[in-house]
Predict the structure.
Amino acid sequence: MKFNKLLLAAVACGLATGANAQAKPEDQIKFRKAGYAFMSWNMGKIKAQVVDNPSSFNKDQVAAAANLIAATANSGMGALYGPGTEKDAGSQKTRVKAEFFQQPDEVKKLAVAFIKEANELQKVATTGDAAAIKAQFGKTGESCKACHDKFRKDD
């Protein structure tokens, strides 16, 4: 278990530098924005079915969305925060605060928490229990928001 947490932290925070060594800063920003946008869209699909309109609940759709969220959370997107991505690059704008790059221990803590909650959402979604999914959806959203609150600039 301890090894898994260390591995997740390393992957989440980009200590595996292969991805950023292959992509220009502009592309890293573009790729991470795309990943987060797709994850957000899938969070919206779950929200629509367990919060906004529970009568529309479809276990298979919710499970598919939760699978994508967990896969993205575990994909090592932290590697897309390489040198040069702390500011706008080319045509890509970033909303990441400089503190993100200055507080790696806090970033690791938040990343590991989000990965944990996303994995739990994936697990709970397979049960088809809409109330349990709704509760875990809230926890997952809060862990995502914790990073936004700390490290994302407002528009």
